[in-house]
Design a protein that fits this description.
This protein is of the alpha+beta class and 421 residues long. 43% of the residues lie in helices and 21% in strands. α3 packs antiparallel against α4.
Length: 421
């Protein structure tokens, strides 16, 4: 969430910046600042009362030592009344702080200056697009998956429901191969692998901004009040919740493979067929924590890492800079990577790489100790490297021929085969 100090000092700039998202936040910011004025007024009174109480407490001790018990008792009565006032002020302060936090949770991150204005995905900026040429009449991946017995969508419906496919034979091996390839590439790039829980508590969801913004999109276990993770970003980043790291430890680079779970409420139509949109899917995530002055170079490095995976898989792709209206709630700047689906004749998103600046760190209370010794909020970043379903879809569609489906050379050492036939 935004820092209240930043809101106080840069309110007009924030309101103007959020217009890129199509949001008029002027009244929300005005209400927030009004609450902040009241909070600071209560805080000032509270500190003043505490200062007086400390003086009285010292005076009481001195009076008792001097044998002036009656005067000391009078002061003691005064201190009891003062303590009651302090208790009321503390309750009032807590109420204002709770209201301020609730309002801050409603305000999305301010877009980076390079984020283009716009309201829909059509307004996203194409910053790179690879040329390609495929023949017409290619089969979509769900037909190929059935033809070569790679993925069983019907049994997935039987076991759980739509959006939970069953991978079989070479289809399952292809999944495992991609996971291992992505993890090995991340390790070569300096990321430390971590294995994290697939269920997180509410505090973790709030820490990275999934809650309360995306509560309806997350699977919730009501009995234990835990949430199935929508991405490994949530548990990996929350490892550092309430932590102060030393500047010498930065950047922190973690990666992890997990299944991901998303309700995808409201998703329907031909564009969700097959592997295009699932409720459970596999993904390798990369996460970095760094100093603010380095974060945008880190973002470019992470983007290049994800691009290199697509290049090694020989998949035609493009890079988009998301417009304000298509930007995630917590992100300051996001690049999407899309691969060309030759069997469907359209682009498929396979990765988002984002810089959250201090937005997540402020929620997480994730700080680093700078050279002057003072803790400062770090910048957090994450990226898909990569999400598997649409990669699998593109690999099947783009590499089909009369002989079968060719496997990219970089994967054959993981699969143990170089063609599916």
């Amino acid at each position: 969430m935004l820092e209240i100090k930043k809101v106080r000092e840069e309110s007009e700039k924030i309101v103007e910046s959020l217009k890129k998202r199509g949001i008029d936040a002027s009244s929300l910011i005005e209400d927030l600042l009004s609450l902040d004025v009241k909070r600071r007024d209560v805080l000032s009174k509270l500190e003043s009362k505490k200062h007086v109480l400390n003086s009285i407490s010292k005076e009481i001790g001195d009076l008792f030592k001097s044998g002036k018990a009656e005067e000391a008792q009078a002061k003691k009565t005064e201190s009891i009344s003062l303590k009651s006032e302090i208790k009321e002020l503390e309750a009032g302060l807590s109420e204002f702080e709770s209201k301020i936090q609730d309002q801050l949770y409603e305000i999305p991150n301010t877009p980076h200056p390079s984020v283009p204005s716009g309201n829909t995905e059509e307004d996203n900026e194409v910053v790179f697009e690879q040329k390609f040429d495929f023949p017409g009449g290619l089969s979509p991946h769900w037909e190929l998956a059935d033809q070569y017995a790679l993925i069983d969508f019907e049994t997935g419906v039987k076991l759980t429901g739509a959006g939970f496919p069953v991978y079989k034979g070479k289809g399952a091996k292809l999944q495992r191969a991609l996971i291992n390839f992505f993890l090995d590439e991340a390790e070569s790039a300096g990321f430390q692998e971590v294995q994290v829980p697939l269920l997180v508590n509410e505090e973790s969801g709030k820490g990275t901004g999934q809650l309360p913004d995306k509560e309806g999109q997350m699977y919730h276990t009501e009995l234990d009040h835990l949430y199935l993770i929508p991405t490994a970003e949530v548990p990996i980043t929350n490892i550092y919740r309430d932590v102060i790291v030393d500047a010498s430890e930065l950047p922190i680079k973690n990666c992890g493979y997990t299944p991901c779970f998303r309700r995808e409420a409201g998703s329907y139509g031909k564009h969700v067929r097959g592997l295009n949109r699932l409720h459970q899917f596999d993904k390798v995530e990369i996460v970095q924590i760094t100093q603010p002055e380095n974060s945008y170079q880190v973002l470019e490095d992470m983007l290049q890492h994800s691009r290199s995976l697509l290049e090694k898989l020989e998949l035609p792709y493009r890079v988009l800079r998301l417009c304000g209206g298509d930007l995630g709630f917590t992100s300051a700047l996001t690049y999407d990577l899309e691969v060309w689906s030759a069997g469907q004749g359209r682009w498929l998103e396979v990765s988002s790489v984002s810089n959250f600046e201090t937005f997540q760190a402020n929620r997480l209370k994730l700080r680093y100790r700078a050279e002057d010794g003072k803790p400062q909020l770090a910048h957090t970043l994450n990226g898909s490297a990569l999400a598997l379903p649409r990669i699998v879809a593109a690999l099947l569609e783009n590499n089909q021929s009369e002989k079968g489906i060719a496997i990219p050379e970089v994967l054959s050492k993981y699969t143990g085969f170089n063609i599916i036939n």
